[in-house]
Amino acid sequence: MVLGFAAARRGSTQAFERHALDLSRPMTVNAVAEHLGVGGDVIKDIPKREPHRRFARPRLVRLRRIAIDEIAVGRRRFLTVVPDLDSGAVVFVGEGKGGDTLTPFWQRLRRAGAKVAAVVVCDRFLVVKRFITRLSDLRRSPHRRAAEQRRKVLKGSRCLLLKNPENLDPDRDQATRLAEALRLNEPLAAAYSRKEDRRRFWAQPDTASASTFLDDGITPARASGVAMLGKMADTRERHRDGLLADSDHRISTGPREGTNHQIKTRTRLAYGFRDQEFFQPKILAIHEATSAFVG
């Protein structure tokens, strides 16, 4: 017998499943199960079917701009996520973080008939983050060898290095403290002077200006005698095309960061996910979700 209000071989009606699915967007599985008076396995099975039915095969031929990111979802566990930067929808989720993880995605693109003419754009957020990490390492190196009076000056200088000059607090004398820390650490001072160059690079109006600015910064960095600056100059040279592509393709990392934040929020709500078959459909539907603590 075929029933219009329930699918074949299901122990619940379509109305019940829709209601449970709506509740599961802001609530955890256990909270929904307790609220509806059913077992957790019943609720857990519904999101596995619904997002796969709606989102498992997105129209890849319409993709224009994507991001590729890896997200830690547990101890030594990673997912590779590919969001559509225009719609915010996640179009692929793969377990792992190696290049092979994306092989199924490239295969699906070819089968979809997508005309791939990709331009790789370096993520300015990650470029700046890597430089700040190197700057912090440079600060810590002489800090270990510093005399006591110098140690007091260098201690706590990391937050000052991260701030833009216009954001230093005059009431707390932060500009003076930063100047003193740079005076005691010449390699750090040389590297810090390049921090402003990086901000100015992203503000260049066109590719030609950005190319000239990049060249003007690489040579002095290599001649500075600071090993970290030399390595960073070599890195910029290797990724030159990706850095300059930002001038033609102004890509915001906001959608990617928003997706990552929602995934991490859902992981915290559930105290981690052990069932990837359940977790991945959640990610595919995450652009429609809102998270809230309920209970």
UniProtKB/TrEMBL annotation:
<dbReference type="InterPro" id="IPR002560">
    <property type="entry name" value="Transposase_DDE"/>
</dbReference>
<feature type="domain" description="Transposase IS204/IS1001/IS1096/IS1165 DDE">
    <location>
        <begin position="118"/>
        <end position="282"/>
    </location>
</feature>
<dbReference type="InterPro" id="IPR047951">
    <property type="entry name" value="Transpos_ISL3"/>
</dbReference>
<dbReference type="Pfam" id="PF01610">
    <property type="entry name" value="DDE_Tnp_ISL3"/>
</dbReference>
<protein>
    <submittedName>
        <fullName>ISL3 family transposase</fullName>
    </submittedName>
</protein>
